[in-house]
Amino acid sequence: MKQILMAAVILTLGAASASAADLAARPYTKAPPAPIPVGYNWSGFYLGVMGGYGWSDRVNVGGVTTTSSDLQGGFGGGTIGYNWQTPGSIWVWGLEADAAASDISYSQTGLFGIFPVTLEDKIRSFGSVTGRVGVTSGAALFYAKGGYAWADNRFSIAGLGGSFSESKVLSGWTVGAGVEYMFAPNWSLKGEYMYADYGSERYLTAFAPGGLELGATTHTVKGGINYRFNWGGSNF
Predict the structure, then answer these.
(1) Which pLDDT value is given to residue 209?
(2) Residues near 189 by Cβ (< 8 Å), separated by ≥ 6?
(3) Pairwise CA distance, residues 232 & 83, whole Å
(4) Which Pfam family is one of this chain's hits (predicted)?
(5) Pairwise CA distance, residues 158 & 119, whole Å
(6) C-beta separation of 214 from 153 below 8 A
(7) What is the pLDDT of residues 38-47, one digit of tens each?
(8) Which of 12, 93, 135, 175 is paired with 64 by a 20 to 30 Å CA distance?
(9) How far is CA 159 from CA 32, 87, 229, in A?
């Protein structure tokens, strides 16, 4: 019995010793590192296309300003800009210029005596040069912008056996806000609202002393897509 017990103890201790040696020889394996959060870089130059719809807020005719949304229509054009994102920050600063061909217009036909006459006021093109400031949230950039605005406005008269038109470039200011979403490397989609006041100009000065003063303020909503050049770092 003593011999059997001693043999059993020796076998048990030997097995434990072998198991401990096996554990000591087993290499230590670290857990895999946590994934690094994706970063988005908005810095650099970009080009884009955009389009949308616009309508008037107030119209100035002959020095009388009235609320009106009769001046309305679509537009489409392009954008160029530059962003700078503060390193390690959510803040993005930028400059942007855009221009669009436009069909924002209003026409009316009436009688001059017994003759029909059609009047049309049309914003043929418009654009802006603005500063931007925004904050990022993941792949999204929320921004506000404001600056200089211009519009090429044409006033036309047709009837009485002929037609006449006169174009003037109006200058004013604009403010607005939008959101841009980076959906792929170098590519982003945006939606934007802008308010613009173009001031007024005088038309028909060759036909009547002092002419006719015309001007308008407008609202526009637009969507667009931008391509940003990967100069100086990865976009994400």
Answers:
(1) 81
(2) 180, 181, 183, 223, 224, 225, 226
(3) 12
(4) OMP_b-brl
(5) 7
(6) yes
(7) 467 899 999 9
(8) 175
(9) 81, 62, 52
3-class DSSP assignment, residue 89: coil
Nearest to 185 by CA among 141, 234, 147, 222: 234
Helix residue ranges, H only, 93-222: none
Token digits of residue 105: 């217009």
Which two tokens mark 34?
């946590």
Render pLDDT for 54-106 as a digit per residue (tens, 0 to 9).
999 888 887 777 888 889 999 999 999 999 998 889 999 999 999 999 999 98
Radius of gyration of the chain from Cα atoms?
34
Query: How far apart, in whole angstroms, are the C-alpha atoms of residue 116 and residue 71?
Result: 21
Q: Is 175 exposed, middle or buried (0-12, 13-18, 19+ CB in 10 A)?
A: middle
- Token pair 């616009």 is found at 54
Please name the amino acid found at residue 122.
Answer: K
Q: Which of 73, 100, 96, 70 lies closest to 84, judged by CA?
A: 96
Give the total residue count for the chain.
236
pTM: 0.78
Give strand pairing partners of 188: 182, 226
Residues 72 and 15: their CA atoms lie apart, in Å, by 91
